[in-house]
Amino acid sequence: MTESTTxxxxxxxxxxxxxxxxxxxxxxxxxxxAGSLExxxxxxxxxxxxxxxxxxxxxxxxxxxxxxxxxxEWHDRLLVPGFIDxxxxxxxxxxxxxxxxxxxxxxxxxxxxxxxxFRDGDWAQAEAxxxxxxxxxxxxxxxxxxxxxxxxxxxxxxxAAEDRGMGLTAGKVMMDRHxxxxxxxxxxxxxxxxxxxxxxxxxxxxQGYAITPRFAATSSPEQLALAGKLAKDHPDVMVQTHWAExxxxxxxxxxxxxxxxxxxxxxxxxxxxxxxxxxxxxxxxDNWDRSRLAKTGTRIAFCPTSNxxxxxxxxxxxxxxxxxxxxxLASDVGGGTSLSMLATMAEAYKVCRLRGQTLTPWQAFYLxxxxxxxxxxxxxxTGSFQPGRYADFVVLDPGATPALDMxxxxxxxxxxxxxxxxxLGDDRTIAATAVAGEVRYRRPQGADQATPTTPSRTxxxx
Length: 462
Known about the structure:
The chain has about 450 residues and is α/β, with parallel strands linked by helices. Helix content is about 35%, strand content about 20%. It has helices at about 60, 105-115, 120-135, 150-165, 185-200, 220-235, 245-255, 265-270, 285-295, 305-310, 315-320, 340-355, 360-375, 400-410, 415-425; strands spanning about 15-20, 35-50, 50-55, 70-80, 85-90, 140-145, 165-170, 175, 210-215, 240-245, 275-280, 300, 325-330, 395, 430-435, 440, 450-455. Strands 5, 6, 7, 8, 9, 10, 11, 12 and 13 form a nine-stranded parallel β-sheet that branches. The longest helix is centred in the first third of the chain and has 17 residues, at about 120-135. The protein starts with 12 loop residues before the first strand and ends in a 9-residue tail after the last strand. Residues about 445-460 have low confidence and may be disordered.
């Protein structure tokens, strides 16, 4: 919280409402770790040149604003940092809610045919724009994204993200075998395309590149070796792939790589583990796997919605945390059935309960903001309201739906409010989404109650 009494600079803007952000992991107990979060009931978020300048009590900060500074009042709303998704597929929007198969059949029946359309540049551009708009409508401002094996899909996504001021990390799928001809690349061609896209987009404004072998089965040993070379040559670039999602997948990997001791050993052998690697799923694993993940710093993206929808299994969240594994939370659209990170929190809670565990609202909201920012090594830029971070934020409406509105009568604590939001919330709960201080999405039909005001220099708290 800002304590200084000096005047704030000309040209800033402010947003007033209840503020919540995390400063550290709150733990997964009913009471958050002391000092891990900041909650201000009547707070002010001051934005300057797209970044957070100050946060604090409105009564303290309002008098410090220059005369005429625009202040947006978000009455009865909760402002949190923009949601971050650590595993999502841009080209799979149309695959959501496809009935009746498990992972490998689902890929062949639905995913591969849909992804093949992204060789068409116009289609790729239209879908990338649709995808980024839908992310914002669901409160997601950043994420780690799979494109297709076509470079056009990567260029289209980054261009759409830049148009909206978003910072995404994404990559071209590397896939040189066991896929349709209109989706497979070549071993050397995948390396050349990936390197060219990396050099074009990585650290280009807010964008980041991710080396993206789809999963071990669809990459030859030679392609995995070249992916490992890219990772070694560019250690600040993320690596993303799939791992240990489905028992049939695991059996297939053991047949394809009989010389390797485990599925994880395949990626380890080719130099694809490390603290910039995010492995999606990690359901069917053992203590050796967890130990190796912790030792190398390799992260897991917990994808509860797709894991239950495809019948893949239940991720062991508690065991991963106790083993020292860094875990992020992810929607995994299109195996996942919603881009909403609120819905993803709800599914994660249910998965934990089915394992005899729990997920507190503190931990859920931490994972979706600062926790996921840490997974992606962008917590110096996003994930909290600490000064100098991009002013990416979501305005949540605790009474957005009849069910949520009813629950407010029985809600007396912040923990209860957060729990209601994560269990009952969805895209209707998003009153607005801002990227770098600019509101890029507002709930349709004027449903939110935000009104711009021009305070006097002495305006106090409500």
